[in-house]
Structure prediction request, 148 residues.
Amino acid sequence: MKNIILALLTLSLVFGFLLLPSISFAQDIGGGGGDNPPAQGDPAGDKPPTQGSESGDKLGDRANVKLENPLGKANISTIILRVLDFLTKLAAVVLTIMILIGAWQLIISGGSPEKATTAKKTILWAAVGFVIILIAQGIGAIIKSLFK
Prediction:
């Protein structure tokens, strides 16, 4: 039983560290000054920023920034799949944390059968929840294939 728990703990840590870089949402949009050069075709990067204009405009040439729709040209099935993808990544992190909590509970149970049972249930229900999220992602993929 200890080998199974150790294997689950190791597996969850590996998946947690593999998904960690994809959870970061920081993006460089360029043209903001600093060390990064402006993006190609960036209207703010074509000219050096000005401190103001005669009309008192503090933005100068940067007032011509074009904002794009964050969803792009997405339809409802694409939005659902994006949400399910985010939930899967979030569930992987929560699964890792819950398995660590369950393992910690098992370690400190001190031979108490009630505490050991609680720890095993924590790990079991964390895994069940993750399986449910994976099934939901599969259903989302099926729905997307139906709406193509």
